[in-house]
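Hello,

Our lab assistant flagged a job as stuck in the queue for most of the afternoon. It eventually completed. Since we weren't sure the result was trustworthy after the delay, we are filing this so someone can double-check. Below is the sequence as submitted and the structure that was eventually returned. Let us know if re-running is recommended.
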Amino acid sequence: MHRAWWLPVIPLLLISALVFEANGPTPTSIVSLTLPALFISLALKKRAMTFAVVLLGASFVAARVSTAPASAMDVCVEGECSRNAQWWQRVIDEREATRAGLYVSGHLGAMRGVEFTRFDQLIDAQWKSAPKEWRGAANPLLMHSTPQRVESLVVHGVGAKRPAIIFLHGFGGLLSLYVRALAEGTRGEFEIIAPALDLTGAWWTERGQAVIAHTLDTLPPEVDRERVFLIGLSNGGIGASTVLLHPRLAKRFAGVVLLSGIGELQGLEAPPPTRVLLVSGTDDPRFSGDWLEDQHQQLVALGADITWKTYRADHFLLLTHTQLWTRAFVEWSRES
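-- returned structure --
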């Protein structure tokens, strides 16, 4: 037996411990132990143990994959939509994966204290209250887009020619509960397309901007291409701000919404060729009032068509003030 057989077991056990810490003794937490157990059984040449571990893991995968998909939204790849995602996108529960990622952020210091506790409680409450038609969706944290191939969650609107929203998620990746909040707030008036970039949400990069452009190129034929709105959340808001710096891309949108996030706009030399809606919380610790005011004044000074809506809220107003800000957005969109 090789002396270093136990080396891969240590990180796998740490991952299992993190999943347990975040979610408690759920099926996913328990099955997460199968990978280190498999290494151990193979190293010790325990055939019965190996067979049992493989059987447990296979049974878990089969159960997850056979779960009825969510009926409220589709998974779309290059504009081709289906309720049935790839099997690996349904093996790991989105709720449990999100909480595990949150705890990683907590351990790394990216989110801590009151903000950590609030988001943990908020997403837990959101998932517990999710209607049946929103459960069983693909795990968007396992989705990934490139400039050549865009994977999105899509909620279809009503009407032959309907306006659309392209939603840019923030750091931590795309969550179905964000899409649900948008859909419930806008009540079927818009086709909602939420591309999944990656866990960083770095939409301001060349790759991120290319994914936005390609998402526009692959919109379904039912969408009114003259009424496509871009909504960027947090890091997505920084990415949407970058769109404003590129007139050829910005003019393809009927409006750009910067939600709980705005990027550096000093590079603007002329007003953007589209309308801008800035939505912010007065108690947002990640985007201070001074920063928001500086960027707002930059747009105003250039003569931009900008509206600023503020709410007594923190960084999570997309979820906590859904009805208020989506109502404001719908009214603003109808003015264009």
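-- support follow-up --
The delay was a queue issue, not a problem with the job. The result is valid. The CA atoms of residues 206 and 226 lie 25 Å apart. The beta strands are 74-77, 80-82, 151-155, 162-168, 191-195, 223-233, 255-259, 275-281, 306-311.
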